[in-house]
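Service request form, structural biology core

Requester: graduate student, group of Dr. S.
Request type: structure prediction, single chain
Budget code: on file
Notes: please return the result as structure tokens.

Sequence provided:
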Amino acid sequence: MANLSFRLNKFNKLSVENSKGEWESYQKQLLQFLHLSFHNDPMIDPDILEDYAGIYRNEIMNLNLMVEHVDGQLFIFGNRILQPKNVYQFYLSDISVEVTFNRDENGLVNNLVVGEKDIHVNMKDEGTQFIKIS
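Core staff response, request fulfilled:
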């Protein structure tokens, strides 16, 4: 059925045979087809990442989030890697979640905001704030 639909639809399309598991090659094919380029995530200073590590709490939800800094990467929700968008915003590559770290007037990290709709942690349009407690 998929092959028939592919043949019958008269618009630009790309068929990628992916049974060999060569994901980097498939990604390049798709980017080229869509006339897009790949941009690596920025490198963030390990001292900044260490500032972000800690336990954050949302009292209303009675929920703690732990952010860990291990080998130059931030982890949240246990084993989920936070990918950097910039020095203060991070995302999860496999679900629609964005995390923004905020600093107070003294430059200390005092909270994070989980943005984008997510049924587990963020139910609000403006994001859900977690206060850093340790």
